C-alpha cells in the first residue's frame, strides 16, 4: 500500500509557481519589456487621455481558468494598460512632485522581492533589521543629523511606507507622551499646531489619533513671508491656548526659532521634510535643517527625490522609547530570546503594520553604487533645471513667479491684464493648464496659495533633461499665445 502511494506521488506533476528556469526566462523577457518602456516613454501622452471605466470594457470579465502566456498578457499591458497610465516616469512629467526611480533602486527592489523577508522582528530576519539600521544611520550622516537621531547615538530611525504613516506614528507617540505627562487622560486637552501650508495628511493623522478638529491650530501664513510659518504667530497661538489651559504639539519651517517656541512649552516637534529634505545632502542646502537638533522627529521620503521608487519614507526619532512604548505588541508567537533581552530592534514596534518588507536593500544599493557625490549631482541638476524654467518665466512679462523658488518647484501664473480682475486671471490660467495637459506633451498641475490660483512646474523626474524643460516652456508659451490672441 505505502509503496503505491509513494510511486503515485512521484508521478503527479504539481504546479510550481517558482521554477528557477522558468523564472530566469520570463524575468529576462520582463526586463526587456521594461527597458523598452523606458526607451519609448516619450511616445506616450504623459497624462492619460482615457475615460473612466475604460479598462473593464476592454479586458475579460473573469480570470481565465486555464493559463495564458506571459506574451499575451504583455500584449494587453501594451494595448490596454499603458494607454490608461499617466506616466510618472516620463521626462515631461512636471505635475505634483517628482517620484524618482533609478536602476539601483530597481535592482534593490528585485532583491527585496527575491527574499520576500517579512522582518517584523530581529529574529525573523536579522539582516533585514540590521541593514535598515545601518542605512538609516548612513542617510542621517549624509544629512548631517546630530548623533541623537542615530542608532550610533541615542536615537534611531525606521523606513515607513509613506509620510502619512510617519506622521501618524509620530503623533501617536507624541500623544501618549503628552497624556503621560498630563496624567488626566483627557484627549480634549491636547492641541496640535501646524502651518496652514501643511500637507493634508496631517489633519488626517490627527483624526486617526483622536485629536479633535477643534484642537488643530493651523497658523496662517502669508505671501509676503513666502508662506513660511512665523515663530511669532506660533508663540501667540500657543500662549492663547495656555491661557485656556490647553497644551501640546507640532510642525515646522524656520526650525530653530519654531522649535525654540515649542520647547518652552514642552511640545513634541516634528519636521516633515518629505520632498525638499533630500536636498540637504548638499552642503549648500543643509542650512534648511538648522535647528534640527532641537526637534523630536524628522521624516523624509527618498521615494520622492532620492531615487528609491515608491514607497520609502525615512523617519528618525530622538526618543525611540516613546515610539516603541506607544506601538509595541508582544504576542506569544513572536516571543524570542533576543527580543526579550532588549538587545535588538524589533521594527514592528516602530510602525502601523506587523509584517514589513526588506526595503533598505533599495537605499543601500543606491547609496553604495552611486555614492554621495552622484546623489548630490542629481539634486543639483534638478534645482538647476528649475532655475532655468524660473528664468524663462521671469523673462516673459505676461507671466509672473508667485512664490519664490527654493528647490525644484516653480509656482507661476499667467497674469495677462489685471484690469479684467482676478476671476479672469484664474480662468485664463485654468484654460492654459487644460490646453497644455490636453496636448499630452507635458503634464503640470495647479494649486491655490493664499487664495491665488498658481501653476506648478515640478522639475525632477529621473529622465528629465534641460531639453525637456526648454520644450515644456515653448509649449506653455504657445498656449499663452493662442489664449491671449482669442481675447
Ligand atoms: C508628499 C508629501 C506628503 C505626503 O506623502 P505620502 O508619502 O504620500 O504620505 C506629506 N508631506 C509633504 C511635505 C509632502 O511633500
Automatic annotation (TrEMBL):
For the modification N6-(pyridoxal phosphate)lysine, the affected residues are 304
Q: Which Pfam families match?
A: Pyridoxal_deC (PF00282)
Q: Which GO terms describe its biological process?
A: amino acid metabolic process; carboxylic acid metabolic process
Select a single GO molecular function from the record's annotations and give it: carboxy-lyase activity
Determine the domain of life of the protein's source.
Eukaryota
The record's InterPro entries line, in alphabetical order, gives: Aromatic_deC, PyrdxlP-dep_de-COase, PyrdxlP-dep_Trfase, PyrdxlP-dep_Trfase_major, PyrdxlP-dep_Trfase_small, Pyridoxal-P_BS
Q: Which GO terms describe its cellular component?
A: cytoplasm
Q: Where is the composition biased (Polar residues)?
A: 1-14
**Per its UniProt record, what PROSITE patterns does this chain match?**
DDC_GAD_HDC_YDC (PS00392)
Cofactor(s), names only, from the UniProt record: pyridoxal 5'-phosphate
Q: Which family does it belong to?
A: Belongs to the group II decarboxylase family.
Its recorded name reads Uncharacterized protein
Give the organism, scientific name: Gossypium anomalum
Amino acid at each position: 500500500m505505502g509503496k503505491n502511494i509513494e510511486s503515485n506521488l512521484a508521478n503527479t506533476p504539481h504546479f510550481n509557481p517558482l521554477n528557477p528556469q522558468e523564472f530566469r526566462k520570463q524575468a529576462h523577457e520582463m526586463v526587456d519589456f521594461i527597458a523598452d518602456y523606458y526607451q519609448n516613454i516619450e511616445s506616450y501622452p504623459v497624462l492619460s487621455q482615457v475615460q473612466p471605466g475604460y479598462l473593464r470594457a476592454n479586458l475579460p470579465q473573469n480570470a481565465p481558468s486555464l493559463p495564458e502566456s506571459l506574451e499575451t498578457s504583455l500584449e494587453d499591458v501594451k494595448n490596454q494598460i499603458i494607454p490608461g497610465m499617466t506616466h510618472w516616469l516620463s521626462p515631461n512629467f512636471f505635475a505634483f512632485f517628482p517620484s524618482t526611480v533609478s536602476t539601483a533602486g530597481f535592482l534593490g527592489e528585485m532583491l527585496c522581492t527575491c527574499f520576500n523577508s517579512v522582518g517584523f522582528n530581529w529574529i525573523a530576519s536579522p539582516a533585514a533589521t540590521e541593514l535598515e539600521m545601518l542605512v538609516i544611520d548612513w542617510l542621517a550622516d549624509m544629512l548631517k543629523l546630530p548623533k541623537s537621531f542615530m542608532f550610533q547615538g541615542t536615537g534611531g530611525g525606521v523606513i515607513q511606507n509613506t509620510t502619512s504613516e510617519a506622521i501618524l506614528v509620530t503623533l501617536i507617540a507624541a500623544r501618549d507622551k503628552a497624556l503621560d505627562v498630563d496624567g488626566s487622560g483627557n484627549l480634549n486637552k491636547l492641541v496640535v499646531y501646524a502651518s496652514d501650508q501643511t500637507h493634508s495628511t496631517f489633519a488626517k493623522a490627527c483624526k486617526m489619533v483622536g485629536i479633535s478638529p477643534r484642537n488643530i491650530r493651523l497658523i496662517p501664513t502669508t505671501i509676503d513671508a513666502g508662506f513660511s510659518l512665523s515663530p511669532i504667530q506660533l508663540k501667540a497661538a500657543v500662549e492663547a491656548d495656555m491661557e485656556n489651559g490647553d497644551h501640546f504639539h507640532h510642525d515646522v519651517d524656520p526650525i530653530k526659532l519654531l522649535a525654540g517656541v515649542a520647547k518652552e512649552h514642552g511640545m513634541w516637534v516634528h519636521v516633515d521634510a518629505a520632498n525638499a529634505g533630500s536636498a540637504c545632502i548638499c552642503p549648500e542646502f543643509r542650512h534648511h535643517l538648522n535647528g534640527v537638533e532641537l526637534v523630536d522627529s524628522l521624516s523624509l521620503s527618498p521615494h520622492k527625490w532620492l531615487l528609491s521608487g515608491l514607497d520609502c519614507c525615512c523617519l528618525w526619532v530622538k526618543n525611540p522609547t516613546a515610539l516603541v512604548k506607544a506601538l509595541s505588541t508582544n504576542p506569544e508567537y513572536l516571543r524570542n530570546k533576543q527580543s526579550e533581552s532588549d538587545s535588538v530592534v524589533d521594527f514592528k514596534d516602530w510602525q502601523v503594520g506587523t509584517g514589513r518588507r526588506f526595503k533598505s536593500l533599495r537605499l543601500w544599493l543606491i547609496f553604495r553604487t552611486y555614492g554621495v557625490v552622484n546623489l548630490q549631482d542629481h539634486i543639483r541638476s534638478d534645482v538647476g533645471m528649475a532655475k532655468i524654467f524660473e528664468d524663462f518665466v521671469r523673462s516673459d512679462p505676461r507671466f509672473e513667479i508667485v512664490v519664490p523658488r527654493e528647490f525644484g518647484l516653480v509656482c507661476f501664473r499667467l497674469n495677462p491684464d489685471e484690469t479684467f480682475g482676478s476671476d479672469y486671471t484664474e480662468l485664463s490660467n485654468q484654460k492654459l493648464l487644460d490646453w497644455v495637459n490636453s496636448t499630452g506633451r507635458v503634464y503640470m498641475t495647479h494649486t491655490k496659495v493664499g487664495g491665488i490660483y498658481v501653476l506648478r512646474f515640478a522639475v525632477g523626474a529621473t529622465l528629465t533633461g534641460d531639453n525637456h524643460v526648454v520644450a515644456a516652456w515653448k509649449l506653455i508659451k504657445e498656449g499663452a499665445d493662442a489664449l491671449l490672441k482669442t481675447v
